[in-house]
């Protein structure tokens, strides 16, 4: 990692980039005590509002705040428009791929993606084969992780198509910034994000099963002890829909019902925040108490829409990720507008040899890992950690991919010792319904530890408000 | 509305109301302890309270030689005792958290802040702190109620939360009265008039001025009992609580709840049309026991008709 990371706000000489000039001027005029007071206020407010997440591996019910940085991440309009077009293109191709995989599998027959990568993958759900989903949409909500490298270009790091989370922080961070610094919003034309729940609800209604005139949409959560419970409750409230747990639902005569104070009520659309494995103990993991017995039968009968669809994991699997540019060419006949990060697939012998020879420089990820767990960051690892990982790779090369260590872009961030650059990424939320919509920006995550490249909240990451400036 | 949601709303309110009424009980003890009474009267009063709450055995098992200090700690601060004020505030918050999407953000924030602040209490039970704690609990309960009434849509969520509040209040008022009736108080050498002891109960229930307005005569046990059971306008009376409960039960009517409405209506009618002499012909504590049993029966019926255990599936 010799290259100097790209800073989002300051150019190589430390001069504010044109689109950040006004903000930086403002920031430097603010007395340090005022900013400290605002930071404390933000902390107190987040606590009171209970915007917390549970941490796995700690005592049950442990709640923590996700650190919030009061310096926003700012994107100029032209950059955003390019990103937006690239993201829409990508999600269109991913949905086309899912529809194809669960029907004719043209892309496999054309030999553009190796069939054994897909059909033997645990993320492929044979139960989905031949099911027609409304509008042909599988990934209704996609969280596409985008990073900017030292060359200033954006790359897609990861597609999250199962139950992507974080959008509540995008919305709450914005609310917080508007509360702390209303004058900034009066002075700068900052694209609003508040309409996200409306768009989401509209989309969810638009994919209801045929014949549902006033579709009933409900959000299915694993419950109050799930790490993202705050978000589930928040979104249900913002959309004005019921927040249900598996125990609140039941199946009768191939239809799905909720237990209500006025008796059983039909459910048409489930926005689920539970993994496939736990959705239906009769079809998937039989020990699941979170799901609804018989749900898959209702789904297969076309009497309920599940968003995201079952089996989307086959399209965001890390072993399939390298083929997304190929999907864009195959289904859309276009060239990808946002590049992939170059990726070595370690089940390929030549890739494996190269990676084993360059481990200290690379990032190695588990194919099925998530949340920043189970990965090796070569430049930051000790020799022992590298050797340890080498043995794991040699034992099961098919479980890993490797990528060059990207110098993620940085943004000025408040630290204990004042303003300092910290690495960031961006997760825009791409919503597919009758059309594809992205509220401008997304969730910016920031690695608060100096030099750290891991932005996941479970690993000490924080968040920033993301501004897309008007033209 | 989901049965489980209704269940959480109902318990959320019950726990807030329970915390407030426990604070009022402690308030009564606190005020009594400032009167010049025989030392043994103090502990007799606590026994009466623990008995009326049905936790005397539990208390004795934990504190075989427990005195006033232990009793206070047990009812106010003991986090391992699910019936303590701190446990109730925590349970209220847990129930609210489960339905935070259904209640207004203001209500959730109020309950969450109450819980967060409550963690600062409990180490010290010096007298002045207890008084502050009691005031704080009452204040947070007032605030919660104000936020509920001031921000919530008058839909099912509001009705189920209200049903929880009024059922708990009716029950608590009978227990406060029962504790007073079962407390021999100044038996033996009387340093304090009976009227003063009953006035303490009125003050603990914020009902002293109300009493003066309604009766314009000196405080007697019988009048206090009448006020707290039968007065239609006294907000904490059993009569008023049942009236308020009925008003919220009607709108959530479903195809199996007719019998529950009848049951609640019948109970309300006894307080609306009954005479204290007849109702309490067998003794006041006996009557209060019957009422508690009835309220318990009503709670079970509401649970079966509307809440988790109940409908559909």
Task: State the main characteristics.
heterodimer, A: alpha+beta, 14 helices, B: 313 residues, mainly alpha
In terms of DSSP E residues, the strand content of chain B is under 5%
Q: Return the average pLDDT of chain A rounded to an integer.
A: 91
Q: Which outline of chain A best applies? A: globular
Oligomerization: heterodimer
Number of strands of chain A: 23
| Molecular shape of chain B | globular
Determine the number of helices of chain A (DSSP H or I, runs of at least 4 residues): 14
Total number of strands of chain B: 0
Query: What structural class results from the helix and strand content of chain A?
Result: alpha+beta
| Greatest interface | A-B, 25 and 29 residues
Would you identify the regions of chain B where 5 or more consecutive residues have pLDDT less than 50? none
| Structural class assignment of chain B | mainly alpha
Query: Radius of gyration of chain A, Cα only, in angstroms?
Result: 22 Å
Taking Cα atoms only, what radius of gyration of chain B do you get, to the nearest Å? 19 Å
Largest sheet of chain A: 5 strands, mixed
């Amino acid at each position: 990692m010799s290259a100097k990371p790209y800073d989002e706000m300051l150019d190589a000489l430390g001069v504010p980039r044109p689109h950040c000039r006004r903000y930086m001027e403002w920031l430097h005029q603010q007395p340090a005590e005022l900013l400290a007071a605002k930071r404390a206020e933000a902390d107190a407010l987040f606590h009171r509002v209970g915007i917390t997440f549970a941490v796995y591996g700690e005592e049950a019910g442990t709640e923590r705040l996700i650190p919030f940085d009061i310096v926003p991440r700012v994107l100029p309009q032209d950059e955003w428009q390019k990103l937006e077009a690239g993201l829409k293109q990508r999600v269109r191709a991913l949905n086309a791929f899912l529809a194809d995989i669960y029907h004719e599998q043209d892309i496999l027959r054309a030999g553009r993606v190796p069939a054994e990568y897909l059909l033997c993958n645990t993320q492929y759900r044979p139960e989905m084969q031949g099911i027609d989903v409304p509008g042909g949409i599988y990934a209704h909500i996609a969280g596409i992780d985008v990073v900017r490298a030292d060359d200033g270009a954006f790359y897609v790091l990861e597609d999250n198509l199962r139950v992507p989370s974080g959008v509540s922080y995008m919305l709450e961070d914005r609310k917080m910034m508007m509360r702390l610094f209303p004058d900034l919003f009066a002075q700068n034309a900052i694209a609003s994000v508040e309409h996200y729940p409306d768009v989401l609800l509209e989309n969810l209604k638009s994919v209801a099963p045929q014949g549902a005139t006033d579709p009933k949409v409900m959000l299915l959560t694993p419950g109050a002890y799930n790490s993202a419970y705050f978000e589930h409750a928040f979104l249900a409230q913002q959309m004005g829909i019921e927040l249900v747990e598996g125990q609140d639902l039941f199946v009768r005569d191939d239809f799905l019902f909720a237990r209500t104070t006025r008796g059983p009520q039909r459910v048409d659309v489930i926005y689920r925040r539970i993994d496939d494995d736990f959705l239906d103990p009769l079809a998937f993991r039989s020990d699941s108490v979170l799901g609804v017995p018989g749900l898959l039968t209702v789904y297969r009968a076309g009497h309920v829409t599940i968003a995201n669809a079952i089996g989307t994991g086959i399209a965001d699997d890390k072993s399939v990720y390298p083929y997304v540019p190929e999907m864009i060419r195959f289904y859309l006949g276009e060239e990808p507008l946002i590049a992939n990060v170059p990726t070595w697939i370690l089940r390929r012998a030549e890739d494996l040899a190269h990676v084993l020879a360059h481990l200290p420089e690379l990032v190695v990820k588990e194919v099925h890992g998530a949340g920043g767990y189970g990965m090796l960051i070569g430049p930051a690892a000790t020799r022992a950690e590298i050797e340890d990982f080498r043995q794991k790779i040699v034992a099961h090369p098919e479980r890993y991919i490797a990528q060059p260590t990207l110098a993620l872009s940085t943004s000025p961030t408040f630290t204990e010792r004042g303003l300092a650059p910290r690495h960031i990424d961006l997760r825009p939320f791409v919503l597919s319904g009758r059309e594809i919509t992205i509220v401008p920006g997304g969730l910016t995550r920031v690695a608060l530890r100096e030099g750290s490249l891991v932005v996941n909240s479970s690993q000490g990451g924080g968040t920033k408000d993301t501004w897309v400036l008007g033209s | 509305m989901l049965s489980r949601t209704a269940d959480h709303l109902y318990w959320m309110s019950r726990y807030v109301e329970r915390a407030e009424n426990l604070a009022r009980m402690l308030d009564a003890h606190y005020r009594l302890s400032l009167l010049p009474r025989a030392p043994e009267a103090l502990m007799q009063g606590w026994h009466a309270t623990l008995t009326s709450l049905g936790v005397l055995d539990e208390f004795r098992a934990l504190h075989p030689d427990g005195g006033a200090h232990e009793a206070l700690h047990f009812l106010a601060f003991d986090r391992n005792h699910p019936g303590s004020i701190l446990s109730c505030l925590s349970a209220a918050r847990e129930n609210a958290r489960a339905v935070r999407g259904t209640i207004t953000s203001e209500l959730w924030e109020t309950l969450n802040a109450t819980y967060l602040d409550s963690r600062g209490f409990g180490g010290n039970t010096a007298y002045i702190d207890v008084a502050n704690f009691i005031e704080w609990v009452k204040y947070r309960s007032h605030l919660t109620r104000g936020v509920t009434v001031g921000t919530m849509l008058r839909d099912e969520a509001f009705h189920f939360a209200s049903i929880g509040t009024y059922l708990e209040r009716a029950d608590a008022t009978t227990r406060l009265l029962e504790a007073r009736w079962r407390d021999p108080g100044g038996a033996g050498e009387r340093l304090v008039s009976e009227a003063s002891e009953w006035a303490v109960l009125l003050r603990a229930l914020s009902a002293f001025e109300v009493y003066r307005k309604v009766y314009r005569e000196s405080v007697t046990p019988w009048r206090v009992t009448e006020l707290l059971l039968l007065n239609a306008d006294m907000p904490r009376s059993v009569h008023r609580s049942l009236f308020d409960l009925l008003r919220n039960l009607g709108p959530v009517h479903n195809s199996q709840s007719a019998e529950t409405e009848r049951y609640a209506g019948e109970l309300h009618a006894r307080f609306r049309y009954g005479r204290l002499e007849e109702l309490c012909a067998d003794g006041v504590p006996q009557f209060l026991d019957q009422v508690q049993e009835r309220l318990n029966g009503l709670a079970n019926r509401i649970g079966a008709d509307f809440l988790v255990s109940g409908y559909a599936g």
